[in-house]
Every structure is written in structure tokens, then in C-alpha cells.
Amino acid sequence: MKVVIRGGGDLATGVAEVLYQSGFKILILDIEKPSSIRRSVCFSEAIYDGVVKVENIICKKVENENEIEKCWSEKIIPIMVDEKGEIIKKIKPDVVVDSIIAKKNLGTTKEMAPITVALGDGFEAGKDVDIVIETMRGHNLGRIITSGRAMKNTGIPGEIKGVSKDRVIYSKANGRFSSVKKIGDTVQKDEIIGYVGDVEIRGKISGVLRGIIREGYEVTENMKIGDIDPRTEEKNNCFTISDKARSLGGAVLRAIMFRLKEEREKKNGNTYIENSL
């Protein structure tokens, strides 16, 4: 089965990893200039670098259908710049997954594929897509929703070691970002992480720099540009797919299997649908 994943950030990469390991043919679509933070575990980096490897899975930037097919034959995940998803009509995937995490629907519809799945806030299951996956950390993380919406985004980052909002780094100005620290570096509270133009960007806590936006990226004021993990002993986590991303990947896999099961039961005259699994 062919699966198109819209978005190539860290959560989308977790989804791609799970589906790839499960035997699906994956194509990732992203924008021309992705703004991923956890870049060491984002297939979106291939948009800039041409090829990236995340946990021994290779992802390669492609330009057309022939290059997509070549990647699939070589067990490589292709990624291409296609913000509107125009390639979807050409390759006719079995599944489309919206993993953009934009907190609103940027154009994904049920008509794009026989099975459509979306992550998080901004979608109504049964209307915009077939299934919505809950992305809010906590008891319902990864829940499959077949009718209704996921929880409203709070804008508050998940808590790590008692720290929530202060672990996220935001830009204090508009301008081009230049980094002083790199992913995996240990940083101290109030230490300079980088600059936006001439404006210093400092961390509010001590820890390990888990993510930082790409060097030279044009950022806007209050834009998220970095992430500090207060657990200095967890440096290796900077370079592996997160628990949340893997959980969402597993949820998308379950959602696909649920839809296939539902279709089989309809053919057999036995319909069973739960609003939320």
C-alpha cells in the first residue's frame, strides 16, 4: 500500500518510521523551507540536504514520479516539495496522513485517498478526514477518533522533569537566525544559544539542546526556534525518535488497519464503528 504523509517534522517522521517498518511505501510531502526544530530526527531536512538518515532509514529528496518509484525500489523514503499535495492525484495513494501539526487544516480532504488520517487539532473526523489522532500528551495520546475532533491545542509544551514552557526557545525579533550552539550541546540557564540578527537568544533553563532551527532561517518574532531538555543525562534522546512520535506512528498504523477492517465488515454486512478507540 502507498501512503502519502503531508509534513516531514519530528512527529511526521515518527509516523513514517512506523509505517515504513510495517511494509508501506511512503512518500513525504513538505514545503520549500521547513521550519523543523528537532532536525536530527526530521526527514524534512532532506529538503535542504538532499539525503538524510534517521535511525538507519534513508530519506531522499525527489522531483518526479520516476524518482519516487526508484526510491521505493531501493527501500528509500522519498520526500518532495509539494505544499498543496498535487502529486497525490497522480500517484493515487491508498492512504493520506496529514502530519503537518499546523493546528488547522491546510487542505487535506477525504477525497485525496480511500483512507485519510490527520494528527491533532484542526480536523473533524468523518468530515475533513476519516480518522483523527489525538496528539495531546496524557491519557488520550494516540486515541483514534472516528467522529468529532481532537482536544483543542493549549499552546503549552509538554512537561519534562517539571519544566514546560520555559524549555522552549522563542525568537525575540524578526530576522535571520545564526546559531551558537548545536543540537546535543549542554547549555546553561541564560547562556546565548544564537542570534536573530543582532538580538541575543538565551535559554531560560539548563539542559541539553534537543532542537534548534536551521542556520540562516528567516524567523519571526515569538516563533518557536529551539527546545531544551532539562535532563542532561538524556543526550542520546536528541538523536532518536521521541516516545510521542512513536506513539502517534502506532496510532496511525492502527487507524489504517481499523479502516481496512471496517471495509471488510461492510462487505460482509457487519458494520461496527466506535466514535473513539
Protein architecture, described:
This protein is of the alpha/beta class. About 20% of the residues lie in helices and about 25% in strands. The protein is built from 5 helices and 17 strands. It has helices at about 10-20, 45-50, 65-75, 90, 245-265; strands spanning about 1-5, 25-30, 50-55, 55-60, 75-80, 95-100, 115-120, 130-135, 145, 170, 175-180, 185, 190-195, 200, 205-210, 220, 225-230. A 9-stranded mixed beta sheet has the order 3-4-5-2-1-6-7-8-9, sandwiched between helices. A 4-stranded antiparallel beta sheet has the order 10-17-15-12, with no helix packed on it. It is globular and about 65 Å long. The two termini are about 25 Å apart. The model has no long low-confidence stretch (mean pLDDT about 95).
Task: Note the main attributes of this structure.
26% strand; four-stranded antiparallel sheet; globular; alpha/beta; 277 residues; nine-stranded mixed sheet
Summarize, please.
By secondary structure, the chain is of the alpha/beta class.
What is the fold's blueprint, element by element?
Blueprint: E1 2-6, H1 10-21, E2 25-30, H2 46-49, E3 51-54, E4 57-61, H3 65-73, E5 77-81, H4 88-91, E6 95-98, E7 115-119, E8 131-133, E9 144-145, E10 168-170, E11 175-179, E12 186-187, E13 192-196, E14 199-202, E15 207-212, E16 218-219, E17 224-229, H5 243-267
Parallel strand pairs: 1-2, 1-6, 2-5, 4-5, 6-7, 7-8
Antiparallel strand pairs: 3-4, 8-9, 10-17, 11-13, 11-16, 12-15, 13-14, 15-17
